[in-house]
Specification:
Strand 1 and strand 2 form a beta hairpin. The protein is of the alpha+beta class and 75 residues long. The mean pLDDT is 79. The strands form 2 sheets. It has a two-stranded antiparallel sheet with strand order 1-2. It has 2 helices and 4 strands; from the N terminus they run E-E-E-E-H-H. The N and C termini lie far apart (53 Å). The chain has a domain of 42 residues. The protein binds zinc ion. The site of zinc ion (ZN) has 8 residues, from loops.
Length: 75
């Protein structure tokens, strides 16, 4: 019996396609801004790596105020 043991694994989902994932089973992952994101497939990871800021969810206070229009630093 698994009494007292609840599945407290954090909700992980693919930020690209939105698929729910098990971080213990998925191998495609990428780190961005200190957060590790998991993906259902290498192709989703590639899409994320291409434009991480597009897919990364910003929850909580934004670290940097977004002022001005269309003036982001270019890597
Ligand atoms: Zn995916």
């Amino acid at each position: 019996m698994f009494s007292g043991v609840k599945s407290r694994s954090p909700e992980t989902h693919d930020p690209v396609c939105g698929m729910q994932l098990d971080e213990k089973k998925t191998t495609a992952k990428s780190e961005y801004n200190g957060t590790i994101y998991y993906f259902c497939s290498p192709s989703c990871k590639a899409a994320f790596d291409k434009e991480p800021s597009k897919y990364a969810q910003r929850s909580g206070p934004s670290d940097k105020p977004k002022e001005g229009s269309g003036h982001e630093h270019h890597h």
